[in-house]
Amino acid sequence: MSEFLEALRPHLPVLAVVVPLLSAPLCLLLGRRAWILASAAALAAFFVAISLLGEVMAQGVISYALGGWAAPWGIEYRVDAASGFVLLIVTGMAAVTLPWSVRSVADEIPAEKIGHFYTLLMLCFAGLSGITVTGDAFNVFVFLEISSLSTYVLISMGRDRRALTASFQYLIMGTIGGTFLLIGVGLLYVITGTLNMADLASRLPNVTQLRTEHTAFAFIVVGIGLKLAMFPLHLWLPNAYAYAPSAATVFIAATSTKVAVYALVRFIFSVFGEGVAYQDLPFGKIAMVLAIAGMLSASAVAIFQRDIKRMLAYSSVAQIGYIVLGISLDTVAGLTASLLHLFNHALMKGALFMAMGCFFYRIGSVAIDDLSGIGRRMPWTFAAMVLAGLSLIGVPLTTGFVSKWYLVQALLGEGLWPLAVFVLAASVLAVVYVWRVVEAAWFREPGTDTIEAREAPLSLLLPLWLLVLANLWFGVNTRLTVGVAEQAARSLIRFAG
Amino acid sequence: MKFLSLYNYEIAILLAMIGFYIVISQSNLVKKVAGLNIFQVSVFMLYISMGVVTGGTVPILVKEAVVYSNPLPHVLILTAIVVGVATTAVALALIVRIREAYGTIEEDEIHAQDESF
Fold this sequence. Notes:
The structure holds 2 protein chains of 2 kinds.
Chain A: H1 2-8, H2 12-30, H3 34-59, E1 62-65, E2 76-79, H4 81-108, H5 114-133, H6 137-156, H7 162-192, H8 197-203, H9 210-227, H10 237-243, H11 246-272, H12 274-280, H13 283-303, H14 308-328, H15 332-363, H16 374-377, H17 379-393, H18 399-413, H19 417-443, H20 458-476, H21 479-496
Antiparallel strand pairs in A: 1-2
Helix pairs in contact in A: 2-3, 2-5, 3-4, 3-5, 4-5, 4-11, 4-15, 4-20, 4-21, 5-6, 5-11, 6-7, 6-11, 7-9, 7-10, 8-11, 9-11, 10-11, 10-14, 11-14, 11-15, 11-21, 13-14, 13-19, 14-15, 14-19, 15-17, 15-18, 15-20, 15-21, 17-19, 17-20, 18-19, 18-20
Chain B: H1 2-5, H2 7-25, H3 29-50, H4 72-102, H5 107-113
Helix pairs in contact in B: 2-3, 3-4
């Protein structure tokens, strides 16, 4: 057994993609029992990610030549601290979400479609893992489309008919985003003759066709910006999250935008370099303005949502604002805060959407009026939601506080205290929208929908509480997350210089 | 004439703008998908055009020719064509389901039925 594992060790980067990819068609054959295989595959991928990250932290960058074709001719998989960290987020969230999804999916998806659902989820998972490990610019496009296409179908499997229109809306915007990325990568190929990211990084500084390079940059940033729902390109996100099946929302909300942020960071710092993004082109300034606008406007809109999943989706847009704000600073501290928030936001949004899935499992709705008094009927789910909500606000001893602390410090380090005030203002808005839910769920008398509700089953509660405890654990024990995020930020910024 | 010497690229840009405009302006969902296809095809043309090597021939190994056109963009675009076909298939399938659920494929009529959009 140990010999077998030892033989697999050099192939870890590709296993992160192959394991979910191969389990996808098998899920189709297994039908209703697909969740067993899917969970096992996610757990295996999680262990792959842990050992990869351990190896990267100990020895530095791992390069893997796919099919034995050496880079830059073959496709290279390249794992450094940043990609290892994001891969850990994706696989970890998959490993928690898939066991959670069993009851929820059985409740929300018709029995004959369950196999399809897990197939799509695993394809999406494979695509997202692929984006994180690949070192090839065109490969990013391919994996992005794999994950996007499966996401469109996952969203359309929601029970509400609005899931269909939400999915179509996302398909149109997502395809435009993907095609923009394709144009950008094509222009890069025209001026350099290579698609390998490391090779691109070494050739781009000598390129004389600056206008083509800048056009490529714009196309790539806007294309990925659509995928990561950077304000004002976020219009597809609220409906997509709100009407997708609960399990799909948990997984997509926790991973998909994070991976898009990673792809953006990778292109900006590892391919183009800071010089192009921040000195030649005003990316930093534009991103900063958009981030602030997104943070404040999305938080404000979240307050007025009736559907809580939709409210959390708007909150996600606001959280992406924090992440983009950190990136826009072009400092190690800012990038550290952003990467840290990728991890922390995955934990808190995963927990919150899981709690919504538990409510939906019992009463079939997450509209705020239908939830009155639910907290007294489902105290464990409610307590988990409150703790994750506190993390979202950024109360000390939670992960949300840690990432906001680092972000505010990064802003103050640059002397940008007015922006720090905006970050705190957006947190105050978060207090308002989280409080609205708490007020309805705890302080109102149970209504006709909730009076009969019982506590969610243990198989839904356990993964939910696992995430909530992780929220608290990483809120106190920041050594691991901050350490890795900081090393990742350093490697990215140094890689560029 | 310099203007026409890069006509592949100019046509690609023109097509991209036409496709993009259709996606934005049309409220019929099938027309939107058609616009999306035109937009994608323009990118295929962009890629295929950039494989051209002056004086090069088709990249098939023959005895006489020495200069070949670059086949890599063509191979890349095969992947993108597959992606485009898959996207179109998913989009059309969604439109069928939307038609079943709403009885229309006009965006404004769908919005009128569902307030939340």
